[in-house]
Write a structure and sequence with these properties.
The protein is an alpha+beta fold. The protein folds into three domains: 4-132 and 187-206, no CATH class; 219-352 and 423-513, 3-Layer(aba) Sandwich (Rossmann fold); 523-582, no CATH class. It contains 25 helices and 21 strands. The strands form five sheets. A six-stranded antiparallel sheet has the order 2-3-1-11-10-12, covered by helices on one side. A six-stranded antiparallel sheet has the order 4-5-8-9-13-14, with helices on one face. The longest helix is centred in the last third of the chain and has 21 residues, at 385-405. The radius of gyration is 24 Å and the shape is globular. It is an enzyme of class 6 (ligase).
Length: 584
């Protein structure tokens, strides 16, 4: 786990460390503290090899996450943990040669303290895959990579933003730059922040903007660049290592990653399921084809209810806890022992246009929908008009900001800039704190390519198919969990998948549906269980604090007005209220 909390005012030894330890109470965290006339800083030990903090006579230099360094060898990834990677970045920064958007790839955040001058510098990555939060007034300044740690240290935990609560429950995210606390905001992505001791302002300079530019003239050239970028990223991480893990599935993204993992190293392929099902069978076959050791990790039917308190603390307020799929398995599967655990997150988002508004499918496939500058308004009859108006105002302000950068694709990038606007982002927050997680589709090169290509190339797997086809040849006849054959283009798959989907529909008797054939939990079934009823009653006290219109209604009556996703977010919020109330 790697997190920090910085305070301009000084704290006693161990005060900051105690707050960071609350993120993951089930494990013994190693915390390093620094104190001086400039203030106090606490940093939890970075799991990624090579990125421990360093302290010189002049500076304290902290790197969160495990960025791939494009300007030097990354042999430290397979070595015992130390600060070689941090030292490389520090030396390059000292020489004035650092280019944040080119030299560091993936999720990272940096904090630099100039001890002599009392100057603070903070750097966020391209899309804030690791978000950083700020509280500042005339006297105090606090920065942290965990919003609840910051709120507790700055004593702002009672500054609850009721609009953000409604936003999160109804939409799954808190609209940037707001947080669940009125006085705490999230910093911009791809930005260098500088605070000088004698100045009240926090100066900032953004070093990369996803400007809408059609950089490529052919989809083939773009596909080659994507494939080579992913190959290079994986090759760097795997260099000199003897054992890695990956998350395998019945889909095509994990197959692409499996195909690129070096054959001369041991590869363990994990899947988390309720039980061995259709998804698991396909994942097992894919692992065998690509030479990986298949490992099924079964979860209880109530897994996502059982992990609620701990996973919520892990990802922080305003982030969906259910994306912390690996929580619990990080121990039972010993994921921390691997120098790298590869995932396939955000391939759909960055390369397949999952967040592009589309016209209804025709026989020619999906088409980009005419952009609407006004997103669909958030509505709910249990929330007041005033709260809903403010939620919609914030979302409109954000889409207007994105439109200035990307007038033709603002609705798509509304979900990416920053990545906290995407409800799957907590997956990164959880995994990076539990083991050495590497996501090839979040590399700097892939993010930039996604920003530089026409939206039409992302639809119907046009770009992705050209990227993946050579790598999918070994699994040419292995179906996707949706019934497609990923090796073939979208047009052919429409004919292949249609009869299979029809047959599956005929087979789906009530008894057949009881079995979960997908990778996730059956949320609707879980939300009708006895354990669910016990949970909503257990945390029902928090309901009245969320919304005045909840008063006088039973928990079951309130939950009936929400869809399944909203129900779980509402439960998460009420659990947080209950936990805060029980603290001494």
């Amino acid at each position: 786990m790697s997190d920090f909390i910085f305070s301009k005012k000084s704290f006693l030894k161990d005060q900051l460390a105690l707050e960071i330890k609350k993120i993951l109470t089930e494990e013994k965290l190693e915390i390093t503290e620094f104190h001086g006339s400039w203030g106090s800083l606490a940093v939890s030990k970075n799991l990624y090899n090579g990125f421990l903090p360093i302290e010189t006579e002049e500076h304290i230099f902290v790197v969160l996450g495990g960025p791939v360094l494009n300007f030097t060898a990354n042999s430290f990834i397979s070595s015992e943990n130390g600060n070689k990677g941090t030292r490389q970045v520090y030396d390059r920064w000292q020489k004035g040669k650092i280019k944040w958007d080119e030299d560091l790839s993936g999720a990272f955040a940096l904090l630099i303290v100039d001890k002599g001058r009392g100057e603070l510098l903070c750097v966020t990555d391209l899309l804030s895959f690791i978000p950083v939060y700020l509280f500042k007034d005339k006297n105090d300044l606090f920065l942290s990579s965990h919003v609840d740690v910051l709120a507790n240290v700055a004593d702002r935990q009672m500054d609850i933003d009721v609009v953000s609560r409604a936003d999160f429950i109804l939409t799954g995210v808190v609209t940037f730059p707001f947080t669940m606390y009125t006085s705490i905001k999230q910093l911009l992505p791809a930005t260098v922040y500088v605070h000088k001791e004698d100045e009240e302002t926090f100066n900032s300079k953004t070093y990369w903007i996803p400007t809408e530019t059609n950089f490529y003239t052919s989809v083939e050239t773009a596909a080659t660049d994507v494939r080579e970028s992913i190959e290079r990223y994986i090759e760097i991480v795997c260099d000199k290592t003897i054992e890695v893990a990956q998350f395998i599935s019945g889909g095509e993204d994990s197959r692409l990653v499996a195909a690129l993992l070096p054959e001369n190293i041991k590869r363990d392929a994990f899947v988390f399921l309720d039980s061995m099902n259709r998804e698991g069978i396909l994942a097992q076959k894919a692992a065998k084809i690509y030479g990986a050791n298949f490992k099924l990790a079964s979860r209880t039917k109530n897994h996502y209810l059982q992990i609620l308190p701990a996973a919520s603390r892990l990802v922080g307020s305003g982030a969906e806890y259910m994306h912390a799929h690996s929580y619990g398995f990080h121990q039972s599967c010993q994921l921390k022992k691997y120098n790298a655990v590869f995932g396939g997150l955000f391939a759909d988002a960055f390369l397949k246009g999952a967040r592009i508004p589309k016209e209804p499918k025709t026989r020619f496939g999906a088409r980009v929908k005419q952009q609407n500058p006004q997103l669909k308004k958030v509505q709910h009859k249990l929330f007041s008009t005033e709260v809903l108006e403010e939620v919609n105002k914030r979302r409109k302000t954000h889409i207007d900001l994105i439109e200035k950068m990307r007038p033709q694709s603002a609705t798509e990038w509304f979900n990416f800039w920053p990545i906290s606007m995407h409800e799957s982002a907590p997956n990164i927050h959880a995994n990076r704190r539990l083991f050495r997680s590497y996501e090839p589709f979040t590399s700097g090169e892939i993010v930039k390519i996604s920003a530089r290509i026409p939206q039409e190339w992302k639809l119907n797997r046009l770009l992705f198919h050209r990227v993946a086809k050579p790598l999918l040849k070994p699994s040419k006849w292995l179906m996707h969990n949706t019934g497609r054959l990923p090796y073939f283009p979208d047009m052919i798959n429409r004919f292949i998948a249609l009869p299979l989907r029809y047959m599956r529909k005929l087979r789906e008797t009530r008894e057949f549906r009881r079995r979960n054939h997908g990778p996730w939990a059956q949320w609707d079934v879980l939300a009708q269980s006895n354990e669910w009823r016990k949970m909503i009653e257990k945390y029902s006290e928090g309901l009245e604090k969320i919304n005045e219109n909840f008063k006088g209604k039973s928990a079951e009556e309130i939950y009936r007005h929400f869809n399944v996703s909203q129900k779980f977010r509402l439960l998460q919020v009420t659990e947080g209220i209950s936990s805060a109330k029980s603290k001494p």
